[in-house]
């Protein structure tokens, strides 16, 4: 029996992975914002006679304080985790700043993933073949706004998400760089367009586009089949990246080591200055 922790596991790809692993007899902790969706997950687990192996932690991962509370819950529940699957993502048309002072997309899509990866590394390293699966947008063409990473001057929902994809690429590079001996395989994965809940705050025009996209997108059950294969047998390299099943060079453009180190230092400074963090 393996232990899976899945953020954003109350909907979309994360939820489908969580249910699959539960059905396969594993222990699964789902992290999500909605108590109602969390209860639905626990109810599904009871229905499968698997309540003892299902866990739910309600948390808003846009807050460092809540991300750290999740880490405490994980440490209390498990001595090792085999897979950390990062799926929480929420689109915002308008810029929102968290109570801790971070732009929301930056906070939940990148910063919480940074904290989870680095601060759970030892719990992952206690497993035999640990893996972090960061489901995002590797190799994307977003820009990192080094001088305005919180997008105070030029916020746009797509720009924030695209920047987040790039930051997650550098998180993968930085994680493996900072732990040269780690057994953790780090996989950055973009599944392609999948018909999920697309959690977000949209204008009516964007909501219409999302609806149209959903109609031609892959179904969640189709989309998770290759993801399950990757999780069952991650590539041997410490860091790998893939877009819809195609391998990307994780040392190519967008994955520069010097940028990853710069970002790691920048992120550490932000966390050190964060009163709640
Ligand atoms: N779907 C696609 O076409 C696509 C394409 C490329 C990459 N991806 C990536 O795949 C991953 C999963 O996407 P998806 O489309 O399956 O997601 P989804 O259906 O939109 O679900 C997102 C999940 O994240 C949770 N979440 C959002 N903000 C959160 C927060 N602040 N704290 C805790 N949980 C939060 C949501 O909870 P609520 O339900 O409460 O909002 C939900 O459970 C994402 O990282 C995304 O970037 C998806």
UniProtKB/TrEMBL annotation:
<dbReference type="GO" id="GO:0016491">
    <property type="term" value="F:oxidoreductase activity"/>
</dbReference>
<protein>
    <submittedName>
        <fullName>SDR family NAD(P)-dependent oxidoreductase</fullName>
    </submittedName>
</protein>
<dbReference type="InterPro" id="IPR052228">
    <property type="entry name" value="Sec_Metab_Biosynth_Oxidored"/>
</dbReference>
<dbReference type="Pfam" id="PF00106">
    <property type="entry name" value="adh_short"/>
</dbReference>
<dbReference type="InterPro" id="IPR036291">
    <property type="entry name" value="NAD(P)-bd_dom_sf"/>
</dbReference>
<dbReference type="InterPro" id="IPR002347">
    <property type="entry name" value="SDR_fam"/>
</dbReference>
<keyword id="KW-0560">Oxidoreductase</keyword>
């Amino acid at each position: 029996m393996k232990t899976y922790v899945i953020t954003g596991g109350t909907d979309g790809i994360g939820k489908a992975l969580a249910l699959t692993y539960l059905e396969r007899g594993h222990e699964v902790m789902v992290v999500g914002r909605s108590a109602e969706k969390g209860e639905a997950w626990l109810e599904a687990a009871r229905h499968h006679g698997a309540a003892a192996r299902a866990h739910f932690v309600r948390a808003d991962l846009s807050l460092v304080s809540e991300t750290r509370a999740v880490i405490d819950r994980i440490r209390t529940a498990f001595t090792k985790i085999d897979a950390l699957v990062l799926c929480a993502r929420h689109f915002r048309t308008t810029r929102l700043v968290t109570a801790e002072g971070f732009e929301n997309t930056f906070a939940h899509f990148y910063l919480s993933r940074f904290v989870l990866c680095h601060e759970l590394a030892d719990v992952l390293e206690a497993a035999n073949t640990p893996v972090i699966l960061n489901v995002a947008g590797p190799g994307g063409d977003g820009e990192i706004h080094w001088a305005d990473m919180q997008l105070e001057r030029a916020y746009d929902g797509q720009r924030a998400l695209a920047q987040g994809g790039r930051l997650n690429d550098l998180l993968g590079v930085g994680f493996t760089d900072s732990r040269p001996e780690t057994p953790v395989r780090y996989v950055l994965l973009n599944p392609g367009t999948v018909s999920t809940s697309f959690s977000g705050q949209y204008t009516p025009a964007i909501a219409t586009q999302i609806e149209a996209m959903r109609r031609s997108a892959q179904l969640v059950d189709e989309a998770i089949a290759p993801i399950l294969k990757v999780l069952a047998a991650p590539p041997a390299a410490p860091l790998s990246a893939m877009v819809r099943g195609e391998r990307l060079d994780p040392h190519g453009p967008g994955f520069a080591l010097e940028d990853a180190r710069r970002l790691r230092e920048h992120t550490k400074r932000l966390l050190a200055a964060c009163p709640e963090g």
